[in-house]
Amino acid sequence: MSNSNKVKKATTTLRLILGDQLSHSITTLNDCDKQHDIVFMCEVMEEATYVHHHKKKIAYLFSAMRHFAKELQAEGYRVIYVTLDDPRNEGSFRSEIVRAITQFQPESIVVTYPGEHRVLAELQSWQEQLSIPLTIIEDTRFLTQPNDFSAWAEGRKQLRMEYFYREVRKRYDILMEDKKPAGGAWNYDSSNRKSLPKGIIPPEPTRFTPDQITEDVLCLVEERFPDHFGDLRPFIYAVNREQALQVLEDFIAERLNDFGDYQDAMKQDSPWLYHSHISFYLNSGLLNPLEVVQRVEQEYHGGSAPLESVEGFIRQVIGWREYVRGLYWYKMPGYAEANFLEAKNDLPSFYWTGDTKMNCIKQCVNDTKANSYAHHIQRLMVLGNFALLMGADPKQVNEWYLLVYADAYEWVEMPNVTGMILFADGGVMASKPYIASGAYINKMSNYCQSCEYKVKEKNGGSACPFNYLYWGFLQRHKEKLLKNPRLGMPYRTLSKMTDEKIALIASDSQQFISSLS
Ligand code: FAD
Ligand code: DLZ
Ligand code: SF4
Predict the structure, then answer these.
(1) Would you say residue 94 has pLDDT above 50?
(2) Helix or strand (DSSP H, E) at 136
(3) Ligand 2 atom 7 nearest Cα
(4) By percentage, how much of the chain surpasses pLDDT 90?
């Protein structure tokens, strides 16, 4: 037989899909030969334990992964899915890939860029060590790519989210009218800072009853991760795209109108308020950010939602979310080491137990424990504010945030912690540290009403610790922060305090911080 008549042997590509890449549009599936290629997914101990993720986070992700694999199978893909309890599972991405290469003899591997530098470094090491080529391709689910951010950032003194956000809005023509921002302003935040009036009862979150796949996963997590943080049940989250879209539609129908007004509000025993609760689904791939913002924008154009709410929400998704990802890849790996304020205190044990007299912290930790979720202001102005004021070590704080929230992957968690709450990057992300005394928490929540500490008292054993810690922080970091133009007012107030008052603040702060360890 002549060479030209030989039938060309079909090649097999192994298409690796990671747990936060559960999108049908994931680039890994581009040009997939459904007959010969293998879509490969694996549940591995290494990913579940490199930090000890919240039980609900593991359950959510494993269930969403299993549902996604089933959907792909139904669409005709050849899916190989390794469960955590498969006796052959050796527990890491690397071991499972090596096993799959031996078993299926693929000619190449394709994977989309991961969300963590740690995993990227691992994949890059395979490129040198594996016997077959591995290609890492762009993650097109975001509206911007890391090199868009570096091009924007290059040569700028300050990397303010607001300007990046405007570029994204223009590029995607979102909330634009005749090349100008809808309504004449880019940002309506000043009208978006209300506390929740008494008597208003926020809508309930969308709840789903676990199906058999989720029940199996819940039993697995109960058995294999009993000592991980958090409550496993009740489990109410969406685990597939159809359900995630339902969460989005419920948000639009029931909460979008009030999102702007109450996005900074907090309420005891009310963790969900008027937020969208879609971060789990956006970050694992069940929802796509562009589809979400276009759907929400429709509500403004249709006259059914106010511009303040729509713009406020869209800014979170195409502004903050894209910006933090760009910043993460721009600054890594050095960003993980940032500690501008040289903070080195241990994170107090009540971040795990909720066992503290400070009611605001107790509420936010308990919400986090129950739901693997807390809304932005709880994360920023209670838990984050306290970690900053007491000088908690950035590594410990990053680890805590990364493991407790079901939406946490390092690309989004780290800039929010290192940059936004801890000012550990020295002001790359935030123009000033986000610090506040008890007065802010009292204004934005009803936590202080049930607290053993007195929010109006400034010093002494029954005073709200946020009050003296706030001034103690400014005093301690005077050398590094005095010249910050946005801290001019508090530093002027501090300069008018008597030496006795400053000494009292310092001793209250020191005593309280020592009592935490
Ligand atoms: P909504 O309030 O309804 O906002 C809509 C969407 O906007 C969110 O789903 C999210 O995708 C996006 N968004 C809002 N704020 C931010 C932000 N600062 N950075 C990135 N995206 C944002 N968000 C995560 O997705 N993962 C994290 O690990 C994470 N860690 C955080 C840590 C700290 C210290 C702080 C202050 C914030 C963190 N955030 C994180 C941002 C924000 O708190 C969550 O996105 C939000 O609470 C998720 O709830 P939601 O979907 O109801 O959000
Ligand atoms: C978070 C997580 C967990 C708990 N388990 C797995 C897993 O078993 N398999 C998997 O593919 N991905 C998991 N993930 C998500 C990964 O940690 C995530 O894909 C990487 O951190 C890259 O962002
Ligand atoms: Fe928190 Fe202080 Fe209010 Fe207590 S008084 S809830 S510690 S802000």
Answers:
(1) yes
(2) strand 134-137
(3) 43
(4) 96
Mean pLDDT (whole number) for 84-93: 98
Q: How far is the CA of 238 from the centre of ligand 3 (A)?
A: 34
Residue 218 one-letter amino acid: L
- Does position 328 have pLDDT exceeding 60, yes or no? yes
Q: Which ligand is nearest to the CA of 381?
A: 1
pLDDT at 7 exceeding the cut of 80? no
Question: How do beta strands 108-112 and 13-16 pair?
Answer: parallel
Atom number in ligand 1 closest to CA 283: 25
pLDDT surpasses 90 at 136: yes
What is the pLDDT at residue 8?
64
Ligand 1 pocket check for 93: Cβ under 6 Å: no
pLDDT of residue 2: 43
Ligand 1 pocket check for 42: Cβ under 6 Å: no
For residue 452, which atom of ligand 3 is closest to its CA?
A: 4
Residues contacting ligand 3 via CB (< 6 Å): 358-360, 438, 441-442, 447-448, 451, 453, 455, 464-466
Question: Which residues is 14 bridged to in the sheet?
Answer: 38, 109
Indicate whether 292 pLDDT > 90.
yes
pLDDT tens-digit series, residues 205-218: 999 999 999 999 99
Q: What is the mean pLDDT of residues 477-495?
A: 97
Q: Tell me what the mean pLDDT of segment 7-15 comes to.
A: 84
Testing ligand 1's pocket by substitution, the residue of 258, 311, 322, 416 carrying the most ligand atoms inside 8 A of its CB is 416
Separation of alpha carbons 198 and 471, rounded Å: 31
> Which ligand sits closest to the CA of 288?
1
Sign for the CA dihedral angle at 276, 277, 279, 285 comes to negative
What is 65-98 written as a DSSP string?
A: HHHHHHHHHHTT--EEEE-TT-TT--SSHHHHHH
Residue 379 DSSP class:
I
Domains and CATH numbers, the chain: 11-137 (3.40.50.620), 146-203+255-331 (1.25.40.80), 350-516 (1.10.579.10)
Closest of 441, 434, 453 to residue 195, by C-alpha:
441
